[in-house]
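cron nightly-structures :: item 1 of 1
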Amino acid sequence: MPRTKHIAAKKQKRKPSAAAEASPSPASPKTGSAVVGRTRKTGQATPSQGTSKKPHCFRPGTRSLQEIRKYQKTVTLLIPAASFIREVRTISYQLAPDINRWQAEALVAIQEQRII
């Protein structure tokens, strides 16, 4: 049997208690109701209220995976060439002081190397 997605059940909002509706609210003396910005018959928000939507939030790690895929597709260099070449030469000097000459193509190849 194939797997199917289940739709999450929506939670129903609680109505305010009868005691809260009976007493007039000091914040809205004109309406005499504790519920402000809602219609009396349906209890739903009025269109003029302007309900704002919650901003989308990705799960942890999703955004970083998107960035990895994005930068793997690009061909631009993330590190400037001059500073990368300088760092390669300092590291190679520390490991092998007798090697001090690099071909330009070799340095570019190291910088553009894609590890998959």
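cron nightly-structures :: done
DSSP finds four helices and no strands in the chain.
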